[in-house]
Every structure is written in C-alpha cells, then in structure tokens.
Design brief:
This protein is α+β, with helices and mostly antiparallel strands. The chain is built from twelve helices and nine strands.
Length: 346
Amino acid sequence: MSSRRALETSHSMSHGDRPEFDLHELIDEYGLGTVRNVFRVKGGTVNKNWIVRTAKKNVVVRSVSKELSRSDIKFEHSFIGALVRDGFPYLLPLPLRTRTGRTVVMKNGVYIWLYNYIEGSNSRPSREEVIAQIAHAMAMAHRAARRFSLPQVKKSPIALQDLWLVHMLRHWQLKLCGSSDGCCRFFGARVQECIGILEQLRCTDYDRLPCLPIHGDMCRANVVFSGGRLTGIIDFGHCCSDAAIRDITIALRYECASKEHSFKLDLEAARHFVRVYRKVNPLSPEEIDLIPAIAVAESVDLFWWGVFQIASQRTKTASIDTVEHPFKSLQWYNRHQEEIARALRM
C-alpha cells in the first residue's frame, strides 16, 4: 500500500475486486467529492482495502472482517488516536469522519471506515536498517502505550494462557479425519505432535507480564518507507491488549527469518532487533526467555489457520507450504528454545 504507483496507474477491477457497496455513495457520506480512480489493494485474506482518489484527497477505504466487532474496531481507533495525541512520530491510519461525525459505517452488513492514504516509495534501505527502524518504531509505540488507559479492551488469547487452540486442533483433527486433500492429510498426521508441544509449553509466567495495547503485526508489509526512512505504520487490525514481548516475537519471526530456511530464526538479526528495541524500551530477561514459547504458540496458530482456510474453502490457491511451513517453524523453535533465549539475552 506504500507504492505511489497505486495512484498513478488506472486499474480496471474485475468483478471480485469491486466493493460490495456503492462506493460513490460512501465517498459522498464523507464529503470527499467525486471518485476519480479506484485501486484494490492486493493481499490480505481478512480485510479488504481500496485506494481511492477523490476530488479532494486520496483515501483508503477499509472493509473490515466480519469476525471483528464494532468494539474491536473502536479499540483499534482508540489506540491509533491515543498514539497521535501522544505525539507518536510516525504517520498513522487515523479514521476520517463522515458528515454526521461517524468513524465507522455499515454497508451490506460489513463495517467500513476510511483514512488518509499514506504515501511512500518503493525503495527501502538494507535489511539490517529495516529491522532497526521497525524495532525502534515498535519500542516507541510500546513506551507510549504503557501510559494509555483505553475505554475498550480487546483480547486475543495466546495458547500459552488459554486452551482454545488445543480445543480447535482436536476439533479439526476429528473433522478432517479421512480427508483426501493433501494439506488436510499433512495436518492430520502431525496435529497430535502440535497438541503435545502446546500442552508442555503452557506456563504461568506469561500471565504475570504487564498488558498494553500492541500492534500485533508490525512488519515490513505494514509499514511505509519514504526516502529510506520508516515514516508510517498501517493495518492495526490485529492490535489487542497483550504483552509487549508478543509483538516483538511476531516481528522477529517475519523480519529476522533465516535467508536459507525461513522457518528458522536468524539469531544475529534477532539480536540486532532486540538491541535496538532495548535502547528505547527495556526488556527483562524473563520476557526474552519467553520468545521461543510465544513463537511456537504463534506457529501452531498459523498451522491451524492454514488448514482452516483450506478446509473452509476460503482460499483457492493453497499449497502444501501453507501448513508445512508453520509446522517446521514450531518444531524448530521448540527444539531450540534454550539456544534462542541464550542468544537474545546477550
């Protein structure tokens, strides 16, 4: 979403790319004039986004997943608004208001909201610099968020605290028994190992960590670079109230993956991330020691989510890698817990 080419190039949308609501009517509700150009943002299986050039400004129209409630969206908006009021030094998707003052509208049973398009450039700095800038931005967000007292609370339970994922795995283990699909068979042959690993990892230490609003998916896909600098952060759809170390672990898995085997962690890159982060916001050794367990829990969640998408026919382009990659990741993090924690404490 950071490429200016999205606005410079006319895009002829297929029927599946078109909004399932009257876009012109929506834009008029916000008082933005006529629609000049529309571009469907590719990627994302949950939310849908369109970049819209209007007579007055360029905006992003965001159609929210039906799994999210109005309360979830209010939490997201409250978090973004609190960061803006705190003087957070990055551009954010602050929701626009309609002529009647609403930040969220409903169209065809789906929640919709708009924000000003955050322009960036295609060029990015080196991987090392990207890691450092994301770590710095995240640490700034967490440092600010410790002071926030938001009116809503949004929880996204992690499997280290809650048995919901174990129950889901067992449910789909039975549901997919005898399936002829290759991905489903892969899942069925390995799901019991996942359940065993999760049950061993459940710990009370995570419950003692302080909770704060976190982004939940701060990686290069959700940040905007301009002139080699990280200037904006978008897509707060996964934000929730949780421990800072969960946000860090998710970023490490995406940004510090091994170049040779992406299901592994590049320990030197991960150390670089943690060093930069700790210069802005402190981390205790106990928090760092939990990174491997959190990574395992998140990988198991992706393993289940991948097969759920396939079995529910929500995706038509799935390959065996959809379930094989997160399974390899959870195995690797589980087998190297002590090595990872020791390396990141340095």
